[in-house]
Structure to design on (126 residues):
């Protein structure tokens, strides 16, 4: 399923754009296809917990898969960063998944830097 969606996006193709598809024209998807999964969660923290559990299961199932092979994208990573740190950063050694958070400004990445930047104009003036 994911490969079909990626291909449609790459080629700007919408198979159902101009007509309703008949059963023969619809893509057949295997019942065991898990390339695309949807989960519903009640909070950002719970979303990250579900993601973590799913990634652990995937890594346990496919030993050729490594954390370097995985990218997770969200609209505003800064919103999720504290939850990612809480879930992934506090995992016990046997369940730790290596991770990094990118696409944050230096100010979002380091609260210490934010404190310095807030105080810097005060010291400069004096």
């Amino acid at each position: 399923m994911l490969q079909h969606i990626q291909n449609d996006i790459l080629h700007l193709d919408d198979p159902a754009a101009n007509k309703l598809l008949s059963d023969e024209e619809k893509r057949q998807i295997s019942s065991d296809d898990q390339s695309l999964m949807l989960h519903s969660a009640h909070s950002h923290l719970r979303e990250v917990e579900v993601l973590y559990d799913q990634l652990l299961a995937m890594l346990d199932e496919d030993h050729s898969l490594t954390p370097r092979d995985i990218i997770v994208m969200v609209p505003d990573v800064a919103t999720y960063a504290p939850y990612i740190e809480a879930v992934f950063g506090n995992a016990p050694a046997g369940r730790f998944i290596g991770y990094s958070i990118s696409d944050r400004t230096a100010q979002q990445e380091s609260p210490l830097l934010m404190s310095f930047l807030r105080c810097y104009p005060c010291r400069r003036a004096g």
